[in-house]
Amino acid sequence: MIDETVTRGIIEHALTTQQPEFGQFFLAKLLQLDIRYENEVCHVALPVVPHLYNPQGSLHGGVIAVAMDISMGHLIHHVSGRGGSTIEMKVQFLRPIQQGVLRFEGRFVKRGRQLAFMQSQAFNVDDKEVAVATATWMMPSNG
Question: Which residues form the Thioesterase domain (predicted)?
Fold first, then answer.
């Protein structure tokens, strides 16, 4: 069941604290993402909460895909100082998630001047891989 008071609080917090910048934009705030960097890896934590469930009672795959996309895009911004653009992304969902915090790791597979091939992995609280995404990104231009 969705706790309306908790959900309204999350939405209100996202509305009042969001900023038009990486890590602070509305969707990141709404999903309560914790975004950190270590070397050339972007770590994203996503709390699994009932208002993000699909009708089957597990975390909606679209929410997982969004967090994976953010882990890769924020890494590009972190290393280049500018945002890139997702050209294509493929997600494979390996197991359903119903509780806990998902941990995502976005990283470069191969980085060029114009394109980057990237990967994001999602892990549950037991450190089991629950989803993997591969993507092609347009790197930001220098001018």
Answer: 56-131
Rounded to an integer, what distance in angstroms lies between the CA atom of residue 125 and that of residue 2?
Answer: 22
Could you give the angle at the alpha carbon of 50 between the alpha carbons of 47 and 51, nearest 5°? 95
pLDDT at res. 143: 58
Q: Which domain holds residue 92?
A: 33-138
Q: How many CB atoms lie within 10 A of CB 77?
A: 17
The count of structural domains within the chain is 1
The whole-model pTM stands at 0.95
Amino acid at the residue 124: N
**E strand segments, the chain:** 34-38, 41-47, 85-93, 101-111, 115-123, 129-138
